[in-house]
Amino acid sequence: MCQNLVHKVAASKQLQAVAEPEILGLFESWLDELEEEAAAYLKKNPAADHFELASALGLSASGAAFLLAKHKNGGVEQ
Questions:
Q1: Residue 78 belongs to some domain of the structure
Q2: What is the 3-state secondary structure of 2-57?
Q3: How many separate domains does the chain show?
């Protein structure tokens, strides 16, 4: 779910046209903070899977899987 939402916000000009810039900014800030939390957790728990990350951060398994994949691909830095 998180991955789908991120793609919609980042790629959809239609969504950006109807969304308030302040809301998009808040979403981007929230996602940055979430990525930092995930990176910090994974630094302390490098063998964690997406279920463990989901539990630790209070996310869905699919949202945690997205963050874990992004982290493994070098997209989340700490």
A1: no
A2: HHHHHHHHHHCHHHHHHCCHHHHHHHHHHHHHHHHHHHHHHHHCCCCCHHHHHHHH
A3: 1
